[in-house]
């Protein structure tokens, strides 16, 4: 078990470095955003989550019918991704309502 983990880490060390660096870059970028822009930034990020929905659907289409775990995880990804997209558009709509004349 431990040997498998060590060999996996050794084979994918470049990807692990990229993941760690992307976390640091993400924290720095988000940390520099003014508080006024957090809502539009998050609503846009939630709308981009549609890519996850498409990816989950593609993975589910290529998954064998007897692999229940993969199908269940794909279904959960589609449901949560859809909720995130709807939430992103709802936040954007509320934000745009603030700029309409009464």
From TrEMBL:
It is found in: Cell inner membrane. It holds the Pfam family PNTB_4TM. It is a multi-pass membrane protein. Its main location: membrane. It catalyses: NAD(+) + NADPH + H(+)(in) = NADH + NADP(+) + H(+)(out). Its EC number is 7.1.1.1. The chain crosses the membrane at residues 15-37, 44-62, 68-92. Residues 15-101 form the NAD(P) transhydrogenase alpha subunit C-terminal domain. Keywords: Cell inner membrane, Cell membrane, Membrane, NAD, NADP, Translocase, Transmembrane, Transmembrane helix. It is an enzyme of class 7 (translocase). The transhydrogenation between NADH and NADP is coupled to respiration and ATP hydrolysis and functions as a proton pump across the membrane. This is proton-translocating NAD(P)(+) transhydrogenase. It comes from Emticicia soli.
């Amino acid at each position: 078990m431990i040997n498998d983990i060590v060999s996996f880490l050794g084979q994918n060390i470049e990807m692990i470095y990229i993941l760690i660096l992307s976390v640091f870059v993400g924290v720095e970028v988000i940390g520099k955003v003014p508080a006024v822009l957090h809502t539009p930034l998050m609503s846009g990020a939630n709308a981009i989550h549609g890519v996850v929905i498409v990816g989950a659907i593609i993975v589910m289409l290529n998954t064998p019918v007897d692999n229940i775990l993969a199908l269940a995880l794909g279904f959960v990804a589609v449901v949560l991704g859809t909720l995130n997209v709807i939430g992103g558009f709802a936040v954007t709509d509320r934000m745009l309502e603030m700029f309409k004349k009464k």
